[in-house]
Amino acid sequence: MANSPSGDSVTDRLVRILETFTPTRTAQTTADIGRRAGLPSSSAHRIVGELVDAGLLERDDERRVRVGMRLWELATRSSHALRLRQAALPYMERVQQRVREHTQLAILEHDEALFLERLSAPDSGANITRVAGRLPVHASSSGLVLLAFAPHDLQERVLARPLAAVTPETIVDPAALRRALAEIRTLGRVVAPGTVDEVSTGVAAPVRDETGAVIAALSVVLPRDAETQFALVELHRAARDTERALGYRR
Q1: PANTHER family, alphabetically (predicted)?
Q2: Of 51, 64, 137, 221, which has the most beta carbons under 10 Å away?
Q3: Which tens digit of pLDDT belongs to each residue from 226-250?
Q4: Hey, what domains does the chain have and what are their CATH numbers?
């Protein structure tokens, strides 16, 4: 890709434009996109216009710009994440029906827990997770499971950087986090009260693919003082069923 006068490539600029969209910022003006992407106004208008023409972005009735259906279509073709979600969804539905709290599926992506699905009941408790949203791996129950089974170099990279306290109970001491990860690997699950939301407890279990590698975490978000054993039993059952659907045989 050709570089701009500032030295960034076309791909860099496209990615920066798309990254300005978030779960809570779904429609923007072109001027706002350019400002958030750090692009000159002329470049932002030109690139956004080209993306609209290609169907990757769309304009609404107020001339604001949204992510286009064409981008969603292309992103889901032959998607590993889509295959994983399809394999897990029937068993997530069973967990959600039995536990009656938020049930979630997450993968490790760019050193964060990226959530592919969330099922909730009308009376489910507090939860800050969104589909296509992210949480820190050292704070969320899903993230802790994913980090515990991640490659060693990724673990060391996370442990070497400052660990932000999402709540007063988030593990921010590297030595304590290292001990917690070892325990998760031994037990095959995590119970994380108050680490990402003080009123909730996250419980999570790993999901393996056909090679035996941990590729996802299934989790349930419970009220802070709720009993966790029943949810863990249901999560482990769902994880094993998902693994079988993916071709993993113990």
Answers
A1: HELIX-TURN-HELIX TRANSCRIPTIONAL REGULATOR, ICLR FAMILY (PTHR30136), HTH-TYPE TRANSCRIPTIONAL REPRESSOR ALLR (PTHR30136:SF24)
A2: 221
A3: 999 999 999 999 999 999 999 987 7
A4: 10-75 (1.10.10.10), 78-246 (3.30.450.40)
